[in-house]
Amino acid sequence: VLGCARPQALPGEDLPEASAEACVRWLPPRQTGTLQVDKLTEVSGMAASRRLPGVLWMHNDSGHKPLLWAIDDRGQAIASFRLKHQPHRDWEDLAIGPCTSRRLPDRRSCLYVADTGDNTRSRVMAAILRWPEPETLGAPAQVAGSPHALRTRVDEEDVEVFGFRYPLGAEDVEALAVLPDTRVVLVAKQTDGRPEVYRVTLQAGVPSTAEALGQLDVRQPDARTGHAVEVTAADLTSDGRWLLVRTYARTVVFDLHDALAATPEQAAVALANARGVVLQSAGEGATEAVAWDPAGGYWQIAEGFGANLWRVACAR
After folding, report:
1. Cα 77 to Cα 69: distance, rounded to the nearest angstrom
2. How confident is the model at residue 125 (pLDDT cuts 50, 70, 90)?
3. Whole-angstrom Cα distance, residue 88 to residue 116?
4. Has this prediction a pTM greater than 0.85?
5. pLDDT tens digits for 68-78?
6. What is the 3-state secondary structure (H, E, C) of the chain?
7. How far apart are CA 193 and CA 207, in angstroms?
């Protein structure tokens, strides 16, 4: 149910994402590599680069240093970036999307990190971090064949932090996606299989209140509840239409058209009527990271040192 064309990037351009033509048959999950990064042992967020073909961005769950890793499709570390002076309470998901601000007027590709984890549901404020996706990772000769990734720091003047609150009290959220207009979509982690979906307009210097858009039914097709249906990750195609959702049990895609950008009332109706399609996935362990591939298909990786990196492609 998702496009899997393989567009090519022109020199100096971001890699365009696969179009939303129907994919009716998916190939079996294919292991492309094994993650062998001793400091990346609890992957909680992943995004496929739109600037650097073949690069996957990843970060750990809470309890680790504020590092973002660039990983190749074999699971090898290319580079790590440290955000030394930014919020780092509980990073839970990672996404790539456009961005615009006084410092970033050209709407280029940016990385978004959701500092939204809240197992005790006690946080008054959550936060989204955003900064430009690097255009280069250094000379390949510096890292090729080396067990040590190139290490650098993010220019922290380029990092924007957006605080926000939920309209009806604290939520535990592990799933983040970005709309084409730079608003972010968050899917709560709930055990009833009908998580609340929120949308946040990022406002510099002023905390905002998330909009409640309605509930998404991830119980399909067997109406299960409990730990298995807790949402641990999400991603949107660049047109904002296809929402990829990962629970502890499976990967589901929803064709939402423009519902996530509509009014809350319209979104609530669309979400209530949305029926997800379960996609093929490796089904390994505690999986908290999925990402659409700009070249078509999607990526998945579970937690743990030595986790396998999986890609699921559309059959053509």
Report:
1. 7
2. very high
3. 10
4. yes
5. 999 999 999 99
6. CCCCCCCCCCCCCCCCCCCCCCCCCECCCEEEEECCCCCCCCEEEEEECCCCCCCEEEEECCCCCCEEEEECCCCCEEEEEECCCCCCCCEEEEEEEECCCCCCCCCCEEEEEEECCCCCCCCCCEEEEEEECCCCCCCHHHCCCCCCCEEEECCHHHCEEEEEECCCCCCCEEEEEECCCCCEEEEECCCCCCCEEEEECCCCCCCEECEEEEECCCCCCCCCCCHHHCEEEEEECCCCCEEEEEECCCEEEEECCCHHHCCHHHHHHHHHHCCCEEECCCCCCCEEEEEECCCCCEEEEECCCCCEEEEECECC
7. 29
Task: Find the length of the chain.
Answer: 316
Report the phi/psi class of residue 158: left, alpha or beta, with left for phi > 0 and alpha for psi in -120 to 50: alpha
* pLDDT tens profile 266-309: 999 999 999 999 888 887 778 889 999 998 899 999 988 889 99
pLDDT at 5 over 80: no
- Could you tell me whether strands 184-188 and 208-209 are parallel, antiparallel, or unpaired per DSSP bridges? unpaired
Vertex 197: Cα angle to 24 and 241 (nearest 5): 35
